Amino acid sequence: MKINCNVAQDLMQPYVEDILSADSRELLTKHLEGCEACRAKLDEIRGINRELDGAAGGEPGAVSRADTAEKTKEVATFRQFKKWIDMRRAVAIIITIAVVITGCIGAAYYIGEYQTYIPYEESGIQVSPNGDIYTKAAYQMNCTDLIMKDTDSEGVNHVMFVYLTSSIRSRRFEKPGEMSIVANPIIEEEVWKEETDIGPVENHVIAVYYASPKFLKSLKGFNINRSLLMDPDAQLSEEERQALLDEVCADSVLLWEKG
């Protein structure tokens, strides 16, 4: 196979730098044997390379210092960029792991611990003739009370608010159980005495309500009204007292009331 002068001259620089393949070198060598013009061109190229290498302080055929410095700079830049990429990747991995762990913890808490309100219609609450309030559909019971000073004595009247809650885990994997929410509030044993700064005080349960969602959302207002009803110096009229009580009990279901 023969090559022309144009192809031969394209191969000369790689030939001088000794980076030609064996086959290409053989083709160029055969062409040079019979072409004086290309031999002269090859000598010219070798002379130019020697001048360039001498100006850069290098050896003939060696890579110039300028090229070496440029390549070193490029390598350093690439390494810095790679380091930056690796750091960003590591940060992204750490953040992803943290988000996944947080999400798992949140999901576990929501499934196992977070309690959702059970409406009265689903609570299965029943009231016996003697006032025992119970249910066979209980997961978890919550209770708070409204305390009112008895204006005619040193006694304290309690209006109880109860409601049931459940978690996703309990609804999925547990059976509801039977629970006595308020045991026999009508009988005398439900009156108990409590020692205070002014002596023993009698406590009475006078009503029990199943708390409404509205009640649960307005516990701050409930506590304000509770304080007013407890305050013996509030000097509330019966109408004002009843209005406050009605506001607290609004939308809640009356389960039992003292006759």
Concise description?
The chain is an alpha+beta fold and 259 residues long. The protein has helices spanning 5-16, 22-33, 36-55, 65-112, 120-123, 168-173, 213-217, 219-230, 238-249, and strands spanning 116-118, 125-127, 133-138, 140-149, 156-166, 177-182, 192-196, 199-210, 253-257. Strands 1, 4, 5, 7, 8 and 9 form a six-stranded mixed sheet that branches. It has a three-stranded antiparallel sheet with strand order 2-3-6.
Could you walk me through the main structural features you see in this protein, from its secondary elements to its overall organization?
This protein has helices at about 5-15, 20-35, 35-55, 65-110, 120-125, 170-175, 215, 220-230, 240-250; strands spanning about 115-120, 125, 135-140, 140-150, 155-165, 175-180, 190-195, 200-210, 255. It is about 50% helix and about 25% strand. The mean pLDDT is about 75. It has nine helices and nine strands. Strands 1, 4, 5, 7, 8 and 9 form a six-stranded mixed sheet that branches. It has a three-stranded antiparallel sheet with strand order 2-3-6. The chain has about 260 residues and is α+β, with helices and mostly antiparallel strands. The chain has three domains: about 5-60, no CATH class; about 65-115; about 120-255, no CATH class. It is rod-shaped and about 130 Å long.
Q: How is this fold's topology laid out?
A:
Blueprint (H helix, E strand, L loop, with lengths): L4 H12 L5 H12 L2 H20 L9 H48 L3 E3 L1 H4 L1 E3 L5 E6 L1 E10 L6 E11 L1 H6 L3 E6 L9 E5 L2 E12 L2 H5 L1 H12 L7 H12 L3 E5 L2
Parallel strand pairs: 5-8
Antiparallel strand pairs: 1-5, 2-3, 3-6, 4-5, 7-8, 8-9
Helix pairs in contact: 1-2, 1-3, 8-9
